[in-house]
Design goal:
It holds the Pfam family TIP120. By secondary structure, the protein is mostly helical. It is built from 58 helices and 2 strands. The longest helix has 24 residues.
Length: 1212
């Protein structure tokens, strides 16, 4: 430390030198020292350094002054508080100096100090005392109005300080406001502008009383309207306040908007611009409060969008000789009307982006007006008009599948159909703009076309001839910038991808020359984009002979394919493009093929390009032209086999797909030799594993193909590693879906090859041997189900062998019985087993087993066997249900299996008898039985909806609450995410079923909510129109009802039971689902009220509402921002709650999980721009920072969310 002090005193001495270079170097060295973390100054050194730096601020040399100011930053964090106050005092005094240079340098110094202070959320005492000291001096400097330049600097610093440290100055806010308000009428516009900035930062952190004073003052002044100049300022100020604190100004909009509308009609272009900018800010920041005025704002914007009093537009609709250079004929520097038009376009953009529910209205009024203004003469305004229309298209993008699903059942004109009808008008307007000189305009056109095609694929099919010349013009135009060419190519690519190939046949010859030129472009991004387009264009194989352009396309691509020293993206796209060329046009390139395939072989050996090459080879191998790959296969297949042991998952998957297609398409050419197959088989065992089911599925598909194409190669599987891996995989609880289907296909293919040692009985022994050996029961029931499915697959492949399963044997263990019953069920699905006379008895005996799993397997087996022969078994099952009350639950499960798996035609004759039986049991007191009955009723209704749905509706009037709950649950099972014949009928009657939300019985209301949730999740179109009537009842169920809370005595303890908890949980689950499917139909502020209540509810409900809050922060951030102060309090309460010391371990775990969830919600809320400016949120942040446990949770969640974002960017 002594040496550091000595070094610094040396530097201080040099700073007093008369040589400016010495002073400069010494100051520079001091700054380096101050930036070191290790530096520690004693009191004396601190005082000397501070004194010297302040002295150097008055140095004659400007460079020394600048360095001295830079030293203030690191110095503030290294010296004690009283020294910082000395610095601030001196700087404030210097600011009032007569010397302009000293004033400027001091104001920069003050900004530097303020920038270095710890943020308000850290709760630093230093920041608070420094800000208070500066504030008094600044307010007096602003109020004096003696020197405008001092005033401007003071306002600038004040705005900076309010922005960074506003929360610390709450006590000074009234005095700051009283000093700022008079400056709004200053004769200097610059002073007014900076005052508005300062007021904007003040309203983010001031208390409500100060905010009310400010708004009342603005309203009074606007009402008085003394002169236009100040009125403009007050309108600007109102817009600035709305931008910074929209959630606070909302309640005053009823008074503000009529005034702004009035001033909008005054003949003053500047005032109009400010008024429209104010509207834009209200629309973006106060979505709820501005709603009643949106139509007024739209009509004003549409009126002023065409406001161009000094220019006469020709009637271009009639004049097809549209002039390119009309904008050059006219120039008027005093014309301000373009600013009004630009503000109108931006305001319409805001309206469109924030009011999704008004889309049909926008297509009626806003869309035609915007399209008509594409002819705008001012380039900046035109860009904003395009941007507004782009926002409209983005809003129209079908957000969920139901929007463009034919099953969506939306009534009347949808936004998509309205857009479809306007396409000719849009294309006509864009056609003219595509030949414009302006690069910016053409870029806007391409962005627009790209978005239009994304929203409405195929929309431009009839307009391709009009658009292609415009795209070619930009590709050939010498004045086109690189970005314009890239945009033109990207647009052409999207158009090619989303339209039928026949639409491009006449244009291929015109498109090829500019594309070839772009592939040869020296800029790699243009080359890359052009290769992508060429790849797509090659798919458009025209009806005529393609030979005129094949050479050009091939030569430009091969040049890029051969080049080794080019960008990685270009390399990959050249490989993909050449793959597509050979796949589609290989028959026209007999001489070039061998050489090109050898290049592919080289690229296959290169680690960087191998994945792309494998995909290209897969494409070529799958070509309908049967391209001869024999020259490269002997070398390529061993390389492909070696890829199967690489660690790159995508490479494994693509290689398996390539090998599979090679086997399928090259079986007759003797191209794939046994040696090649052996090389691949050697690599397969490690791939067949539960650790990666998709890779296992692809490996199994390859083996199935091999069994069909090269059955002789399967001999070596007997007793090998592949089969043992398969047996291990069969027993995995994870085996399901595609991987299980691939395994069944393989076993079927395997036994049909009749390979020695791999016949029906051999494979059956392999599969069932471990169960019969009784060495150990399989770990999971799923394993028995998988083996049973494999047994059934073998039996259907070899029907002559007959099912060899053993249920009767008295020595059979439960696990053997379980496997035997499941196998019988699976076989019965495909084979009629009615020829086995003892079957019924055997299965009914199994119903008496002591093992629950055997009982359930027997139930499944009976249902599945019945599917194979309904006339034989269904009456028997129905009779047993009636006569065996003890076995009723198991028999009903059998019936459920029958209804779920049989064909509609097969079941139709039995519907009435099954329905009658089910209704007898729908009032059963056992909830489990009622649920099975409800599922059967629902699935039965799907067979004959016209008859059965009205009957179901009739039982809603039943006096039994059990019957009503069964009927409502049954409706849940009629809803699926796929289109079904019942949907139109269901849409008309689901409202009646959901009226049970008003049922007096708790359980009926709960199942009604579960059914509603299912509809909202799987088929939102069923309930969208009913939300206005359903939501009040849904919200009603989120309330805590005291009458449902009771105390239960458990020995010496009293335990509180809340009977309404399940109901509330179901209601909040529905609310969460609605966020994804019906957000545009919800009043978000009412929704937020109930989310707010949920934040104070039971553990389960809190967890749900924290999730909702995180979701809402992304979906409707402006609404959440308006409620932020009310949301912070419950979050803070959750995070600061302490569990009693003597609580059980689970209580501590639950509280920890709650804290983590609450903190996730906090991190999501802080993701909203300007959320941290809320004083309550800032205070909560400082509380988190000061608490070690909370700070650790907060940091880990922030890290997780950042890494998740990075991953999503990587995978996109």
């Amino acid at each position: 430390m002594a040496s550091a002090s000595y070094h610094i005193s040396n530097l201080l001495e040099k700073m007093t030198s008369s040589d400016k270079d010495f002073r400069f170097m010494a100051t520079n060295d001091l700054m380096t020292e101050l930036q070191k973390d290790s530096i520690k100054l004693d009191d004396d050194s601190e005082r000397k350094v501070v004194k010297m730096i302040l002295k150097l601020l008055e140095d004659k040399n400007g460079e020394v002054q600048n360095l001295a100011v830079k030293c203030l930053g690191p110095l503030v964090s290294k010296v004690k508080e009283y020294q910082v106050e000395t610095i601030v005092d001196t700087l404030c005094t210097n600011m009032l100096s007569d010397k302009e240079q000293l004033r400027d340098i001091s104001s920069i110094g003050l900004k530097t100090v303020i920038g270095e202070l710890p943020p308000a959320s850290s709760g630093s005492a230093l920041a608070a005392s420094v800000c208070k000291k500066i504030t008094g001096r600044l307010t007096s400097a602003i109020a004096k109005q003696e020197d405008v330049s001092v005033q401007l600097e003071a306002l600038d610093i004040m705005a900076d300080m309010l922005c960074r440290q506003g929360g610390l100055l709450v006590n000074f806010h009234p005095s700051i406001l009283s000093c700022l308000l008079p400056q709004l009428t200053s004769p200097r516009l610059a002073v007014r502008k900076r005052t508005i900035m300062a007021l904007g930062h003040l309203v983010m952190s001031c208390c409500n009383l100060v905010f009310i004073d400010l708004i009342e003052h603005l309203l009074a002044e606007l009402g008085r309207n003394d002169n236009m100049s100040t009125t403009r300022t007050y309108i600007q100020c109102t817009a600035a306040i709305s931008r910074q604190a929209g959630h606070r100004i909302g309640t005053y909009l009823e008074k503000i908007i009529p005034l702004v509308v009035k001033f909008c009609n005054v003949d003053d272009d500047e005032l109009r611009e400010y008024c429209i900018q104010a509207f834009e800010s209200f629309i973006r920041r106060c979505p709820k409060e501005v709603y009643p005025h949106v139509s007024t704002v739209i009509s004003l914007c549409l009126r002023y969008l065409t406001y161009d009093p000094n220019y006469n537009y020709d009637d271009e609709d009639e004049d097809d000789n549209y002039s390119d250079d009309y904008s050059d004929d006219y120039s008027d520097d005093d014309d301000m009307s373009w600013k009004v038009r630009r503000a109108s376009a931006k305001c319409l953009d805001a309206v469109v982006a924030s009011r999704h529910e008004m889309l049909p209205e926008f297509y009626r009024s806003v869309s035609p007006a915007l399209v008509a203004r594409f002819k705008e003469r001012e380039e900046n305004v035109k860009a904003d008009v395009f941007h507004a229309f782009l926002s409209l298209l983005k809003q129209t993008r079908p957000a969920q599948a139901w929007l463009n699903d034919p099953d969506a059942m939306e009534q009347g004109e949808t936004p998509l159909t309205m857009l479809q009808n306007q396409v000719p008008m849009i294309v006509k307007a864009l056609h003219r703009q595509l030949k414009e000189k302006s690069v910016k305009t053409r870029q806007c056109c391409f962005n627009m076309l790209t978005e239009l095609v994304t929203v409405l694929p195929g929309a431009l099919t009839t307009h391709i001839p009009v658009l292609i010349p415009g795209i070619i013009f930009s590709l050939n135009d010498k004045s086109s910038s690189s970005n314009l060419k890239i945009d033109a190519l990207a647009c052409l690519y999207v158009v090619l991808c989303n339209h039928p190939a026949t639409a491009f046949h006449p244009h291929v010859s015109a498109l090829v020359p500019p594309l070839v030129a772009c592939v040869g472009d020296p800029f790699y991004k243009i080359t890359s984009e052009a290769l992508l387009v060429t790849q797509q264009l090659v798919k458009v194989r025209p009806d005529f002979d393609p030979s005129p352009y094949i050479d050009d396309v091939f030569n430009c691509t091969i040049k890029r394919l051969k080049a080794a020293d080019i960008d990685q993206e270009v390399k990959e796209r050249a490989i993909s493009c050449m793959g597509q060329i050979i796949c589609n046009l290989g028959d026209h390139l007999p001489n070039e093929l061998p050489g090109t395939l050898l290049i592919f072989l080289e690229r296959l050996k290169n680690e960087i390009t191998r994945l792309t090459t494998v995909k290209a080879l897969t494409l070529i191998a799958g070509s309908r032209l049967s391209i001869d790959l024999r020259p490269v296969l002997p070398d390529a297949v061993p390389i492909l086999a070696s890829f199967l042991r690489k660690n790159q998952r995508a490479l494994k998957l693509c290689t398996l797909a390539a090998l599979d297609i090679l086997l399928r398409n090259y079986r007759y050419l003797s191209a794939v030799t046994p040696a090649m197959v052996d090389a691949v088989l050697a690599e397969l065992p490690p791939l067949i594993s539960e650790s990666d089911m998709h890779v296992s599925q692809m490996a199994l598909s390859f083996l199935s193909t091999l069994a069909h194409t090269h059955p002789s190669a399967l001999g070596q599987l007997s007793g090998g590693a592949i089969l043992s891996q398969l047996i291990v995989l069969v027993r995995s609880p994870l085996l399901q879906g595609g991987a299980l289907a691939a395994m069944l296909d393989f076993y079927k293919a395997l036994v049909t090859t009749e390979t020695a040692g791999l016949g029906y009985m051999d494979v059956l022994r392999m599969l069932t041997g471990p169960v019969y050996a009784q060495s150990s029961a399989l770990g999971h029931k799923q394993a028995y189900c998988s083996i049973a499915k494999c047994v059934a697959a073998l039996t259907t492949a070899c029907p002559r062998e007959g099912p060899a399963v053993d249920v009767k044997n008295s020595r059979s263990t439960d696990s053997i019985r379980l496997l035997a019953l499941l196998s019988l069920g699976e076989v019965g699905h495909h084979v009629d087993l009615s020829s086995q006379p003892e079957l019924k008895t055997v299965i009914l005996d199994a119903f008496s087993s002591t093992s629950e799993e055997v009982k359930s397997a027997a139930s499944y087996a009976l249902g599945s066997i019945a599917v194979g022969n309904l006339p034989e078994y269904l009456p028997f099952v129905l009779q047993e249900i009636s006569s065996q009350p003890k076995r009723q639950y198991l028999l009903l499960h059998s019936l459920k299996e029958i209804i779920g798996s049989s064909t509609v035609a097969g079941l139709k004759p039995y519907v009435e008898s099954v329905w009658t039986l089910l209704l007898k049991h729908c009032e059963c007191q056992e909830e489990g039985t009622r649920n099975v009955v409800a599922e059967c009723l629902g699935k039965l209704t799907l067979i004959d909806p016209e008859t059965l749905l009205p009957r179901l509706k009739g039982y809603l009037l039943s006096g039994s609450s059990y019957a009503r709950s069964s009927v409502v649950t049954a409706v849940k099972f009629t809803i699926s995410d796929q289109p079904q014949p019942i949907d139109p009928l269901l849409k008309n009657s689901i409202g009646d079923f959901l009226k049970t939300l008003e049922d007096p019985d708790l359980n009926v209301r709960r199942v009604a909510l579960v059914t509603f949730n299912s509809a909202a999740h799987n088929k939102p179109s069923l309930i969208r129109e009913l939300l206005d009537t359903i939501l009040p009842h849904l919200y009603n169920e989120t309330r805590v009802r005291k009458e449902l809370i009771r105390e239960v005595e458990m020995g010496p303890f009293k335990h509180t039971v809340d009977d309404g908890l399940d109901l509330r949980k179901a209601a909040f689950e529905c609310m969460y689902t609605l966020l994804d499917s019906c957000l545009d139909r919800i009043d978000i502020f009412t929704f937020l009220n109930h989310v707010e209540d949920g934040l104070k509810d039971h553990y389960d409900i809190k967890m749900l509402t924290f999730l909702m809050l995180a979701r809402l922060s992304c979906l409707c951030s402006s609404a959440v921002l308006q409620r932020l102060d009310r949301l912070v309090e419950p979050l803070r309460a959750t995070c600061t709650t302490k569990v009693k010391a003597n609580s059980v371990k689970q209580e501590f775990e639950k509280q920890d999980e709650l804290k983590r969830s609450a903190m996730r919600a906090v991190v999501a809320l802080l993701g909203i721009p300007e959320a941290e400016k809320s004083p309550l949120m800032a205070e909560f942040q400082s509380q988190i920072a000061s608490n070690q446990e909370l700070a650790a949770i907060f940091d880990s969640i922030q890290r997780d969310s950042t890494s998740a974002n990075m991953e999503s960017m990587d995978t996109s």
